[in-house]
Amino acid sequence: AQSVSQHNHHVILSEAASLELGCNYSYGGTVNLFWYVQYPGQHLQLLLKYFSGDPLVKGIKGFEAEFIKSKFSFNLRKPSVQWSDTAEYFCAVTARTLSSNTGKLIFGQGTTLQVKP
Amino acid sequence: DGGITQSPKYLFRKEGQNVTLSCEQNLNHDAMYWYRQDPGQGLRLIYYSQIVNDFQKGDIAEGYSVSREKKESFPLTVTSAQKNPTAFYLCASRQLLRPGELFFGEGSRLTVL
């Protein structure tokens, strides 16, 4: 069965620090990969996605993620975080063949990022 | 503005009672989903539907039921058979041609007393 693992459950950074959140998945086939973000008091929203092509994808608000197929990873990065990046971040994966039929997403446990001003 | 509306935002229930959570979308999306969010466990899929009058069980469907009588509506009933119903429930929808790109509602927090 597919699974997604996020290694960091709670991360605390100061403003301007660099961010990298780890995400690994287990599935042997072709996948689509996503990062979702939930800001305090707001609904969960898509941050970025990877379907195919360039393994380095860019999302909103300066975030980027790199797909490394050999490592089954899709880590999220941002060179310089801001206080407004305080949120919970979820990595998610769907099998390419499965998603074409159901769109079922498997989510990681989530990482809470706290940015200190 | 288009979006997903969940109600109520907060709900308290006594043990043994069924409760229905509402989810309405005006995005004209075909597919709709219910997820349950628990601290440290991420989101787990309860039920999903890709077309009116059809739905499938997700990974944790026991103790829950749904209906899809209209395209824009996908209510979730938490029955008394659900052993641990206190949780945050999220409804989502998507266009069929955009797999994995879900639009979420703001959620409903259910507390069983």
Brief summary of the model shown:
The complex is a heterodimer of chains A (117) and B (113). With 117 residues, chain A is mainly beta. Helix content of chain A is 3%, strand content 50%.
Provide structural commentary.
The complex is a heterodimer of chains A (117) and B (113). Chain A is globular. In chain A, a hairpin with a 4-residue loop joins strand 8 and strand 9. Chain A is mainly beta and 117 residues long. Chain A contains one helix and twelve strands. In chain A, the strands form three sheets. In chain A, strands 2, 5, 6, 10, 11 and 12 form a six-stranded mixed sheet that branches. Chain A is 3% helix and 50% strand. Chain B is an all-beta fold and 113 residues long. Chain B has strands at 4-7, 10-13, 19-25, 31-38, 42-51, 54-57, 64-66, 76-78, 87-94, 103-104, 108-112. In chain B, the strands form two sheets. In chain B, strands 2, 4, 5, 6, 9, 10 and 11 form a seven-stranded mixed sheet that branches. The model of chain B has no long low-confidence stretch (mean pLDDT 93). Classes of the chains: A mainly beta (117), B mainly beta (113). The A-B interface holds A 4, 6, 9, 32, 34, 36, 42-46, 49, 90, 92, 94, 99-100, 102-105, 107-110 and B 4, 31, 33, 35, 40-45, 48, 50, 56, 58, 90, 92, 94, 96, 99-102, 104-107.
